[in-house]
């Protein structure tokens, strides 16, 4: 979606046993960011997932672990387009709203990964752990 275009609702889709989640999961698309920007964000997040799995193999992680805390400053990364989208829309909390979008993109990245991941919802956020396969 680009400036001036009407918002459109993207369909949810389900990833099942042939994908990388151990359990069936629903993935939602995001709007308001170009496909090119989404692809860049997904590549960026995939790199973060690979680093986590290499260095913290048996530990659960969430978007907050990968892109929050010390990594909250998104300028200079593809993630900034999510913040800019919500800021331009006049969001009361563009950081929180951008984080939600990034969370859906992370879920899509993990869902398309060749490895298997376990997932759980804890403290209102989605967490993942590489199943070692």
Number of helices: 4
Give the DSSP E fraction (strand runs of 2 or more residues). Answer: 5-15%
Radius of gyration: 15 Å
In N-to-C order, the SSE pattern is EEHHHHEE
Distance, first to last CA:
37 Å
Write down the domain tally. 1
Q: What is the strand arrangement across the widest sheet?
A: 1-2
Low-confidence stretches: 8-18
Specify the overall morphology. Answer: globular
Oligomer designation: single chain
* Helix proportion: 25-40%
Total number of strands = 4
Structure characterization notes:
This protein is α+β, with helices and mostly antiparallel strands and 133 residues long. It contains four helices and four strands, in the order E-E-H-H-H-H-E-E. The chain has helices at 35-55, 63-67, 80-88, 94-111; strands at residues 13-15, 25-27, 117-122, 125-130. Helix 1 (35-55) packs across helix 4 (94-111). The chain is globular, with a radius of gyration of 15 Å. The N and C termini lie far apart (37 Å).
Per-chain topology:
Blueprint lengths: L12 E3 L9 E3 L7 H21 L7 H5 L12 H9 L5 H18 L5 E6 L2 E6 L3
Antiparallel strand pairs: 1-2, 3-4
Helix pairs in contact: 1-4, 3-4
């Amino acid at each position: 979606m680009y400036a001036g275009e009407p918002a459109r609702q993207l369909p949810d889709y389900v990833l099942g046993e042939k994908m990388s989640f151990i359990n069936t999961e629903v993935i939602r698309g995001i709007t308001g960011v170009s496909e090119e920007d989404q692809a860049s964000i997904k590549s960026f997040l995939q790199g973060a997932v690979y680093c986590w799995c290499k260095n913290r193999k048996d530990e659960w992680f969430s978007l907050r672990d990968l892109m929050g805390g010390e990594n909250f400053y998104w300028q200079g990364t593809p993630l900034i387009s999510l913040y800019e989208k919500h800021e331009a829309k006049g969001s009361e909390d563009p950081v929180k709203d951008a984080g939600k979008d990034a969370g859906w993109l992370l879920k899509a990245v993990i869902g398309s990964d060749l490895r298997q991941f376990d997932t759980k919802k804890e403290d209102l956020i989605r967490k993942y752990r590489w199943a070692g396969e």
